């Protein structure tokens, strides 16, 4: 309720609360108003999710040599495309099935389901004995990961303050960066042979007596998933989702707790400003999107941006070590270049958190594409044998494409109404992941013909095209979710 002039606003609840009033009270909260433990809970799950995305980057060379007859470090890139493709097909299957269930059944419970599936897939990966089962395991893991990406971003955007959606998405992304960092460095430690620096890691463990490091990595992933599952039981349901299901009083109770947390820190809250909101369960989420011209056009537009952008993202995130090995970098050195480059991921996640709200979401994308191009050029022009330049390029490269990701996460979820937000994100990000398979299926066989410069220009060029297309999209910064997507 609105406060009297000069008096602090207080949390309210009760049967008189209307859906519009509850959303207005939620939207006026200027800070993160849930327990900060929630950020850790969601972040722990995302740490595992990105560990799973990046653990294949360095470790796949050892995996391929172990389970694919005739595979060598130089040819491993040719076998990487299929497991990545089926992993991303799993993303599509999982996100298109599980995300609509989250729109119908709730965010919290489906966040538990996605983490269980992902953990089971990782355990299967640790136990496989051949290439076919490795691919099947990666597909199962992808089913959980794809839906988890959609649901985490949906949840964060629904509970974060209007002026901080990119900021708090980026805060979770810091945990993502740590997961990626862990996946890459463990791969270097457990799956590459020791080499004198800078040709590798002198204390790496792989060798004739230690060829199962890649299995340990997927076992660690299983443990991380278990931790994520246990922590997610503590989450509240999204109040916006509760309102979309007509459960206004339940939503009012959550918002009252959020107001109390906020008042303890800021002392006074702005006067609520009501706008119309949907208070009843809608149609099937896919019907909500495809039956509405506004959301259909947004979906087609964002899908193109994600599909093209992911060609770049996955060529680097899942395949950079194998690509460098195909370009004549010794595998331990290639892994070390990627591992040091992952520092750029951690740095950009912190940068995103500090500065992400300064610009409209779509304006960050050309900046990210330009940095990605610079990183690609440094690696390509430095070439094998110029370790310092390649490392610098790798850091800039990881900084660039990971500036693109959280801004586009935030921007995409803002384009859909609460009743179909998880489904909308699933359609554009989930199906858009298929673009990632294109880079790793098409580019590696062409490397001998293209050479380093053309290879990396193609990789960076896709992100540039996606960033240019994005400039024709909707501005969402500092706008209320129900205003952007009624």
Automatic annotation (TrEMBL):
<feature type="transmembrane region" description="Helical">
    <location>
        <begin position="110"/>
        <end position="128"/>
    </location>
</feature>
<dbReference type="Pfam" id="PF00083">
    <property type="entry name" value="Sugar_tr"/>
</dbReference>
<feature type="transmembrane region" description="Helical">
    <location>
        <begin position="453"/>
        <end position="472"/>
    </location>
</feature>
<feature type="transmembrane region" description="Helical">
    <location>
        <begin position="336"/>
        <end position="356"/>
    </location>
</feature>
<dbReference type="GO" id="GO:0005886">
    <property type="term" value="C:plasma membrane"/>
</dbReference>
<feature type="transmembrane region" description="Helical">
    <location>
        <begin position="363"/>
        <end position="381"/>
    </location>
</feature>
<feature type="transmembrane region" description="Helical">
    <location>
        <begin position="76"/>
        <end position="98"/>
    </location>
</feature>
<keyword id="KW-0812">Transmembrane</keyword>
<dbReference type="InterPro" id="IPR020846">
    <property type="entry name" value="MFS_dom"/>
</dbReference>
<dbReference type="InterPro" id="IPR036259">
    <property type="entry name" value="MFS_trans_sf"/>
</dbReference>
<feature type="transmembrane region" description="Helical">
    <location>
        <begin position="134"/>
        <end position="156"/>
    </location>
</feature>
<keyword id="KW-1133">Transmembrane helix</keyword>
<feature type="transmembrane region" description="Helical">
    <location>
        <begin position="426"/>
        <end position="447"/>
    </location>
</feature>
<feature type="transmembrane region" description="Helical">
    <location>
        <begin position="212"/>
        <end position="231"/>
    </location>
</feature>
<feature type="transmembrane region" description="Helical">
    <location>
        <begin position="35"/>
        <end position="56"/>
    </location>
</feature>
<protein>
    <submittedName>
        <fullName>MFS transporter</fullName>
    </submittedName>
</protein>
<keyword id="KW-0813">Transport</keyword>
<dbReference type="InterPro" id="IPR005829">
    <property type="entry name" value="Sugar_transporter_CS"/>
</dbReference>
<feature type="transmembrane region" description="Helical">
    <location>
        <begin position="387"/>
        <end position="405"/>
    </location>
</feature>
<feature type="transmembrane region" description="Helical">
    <location>
        <begin position="168"/>
        <end position="192"/>
    </location>
</feature>
<feature type="transmembrane region" description="Helical">
    <location>
        <begin position="300"/>
        <end position="324"/>
    </location>
</feature>
<dbReference type="GO" id="GO:0022857">
    <property type="term" value="F:transmembrane transporter activity"/>
</dbReference>
<keyword id="KW-0472">Membrane</keyword>
<dbReference type="InterPro" id="IPR005828">
    <property type="entry name" value="MFS_sugar_transport-like"/>
</dbReference>
<feature type="domain" description="Major facilitator superfamily (MFS) profile">
    <location>
        <begin position="38"/>
        <end position="478"/>
    </location>
</feature>
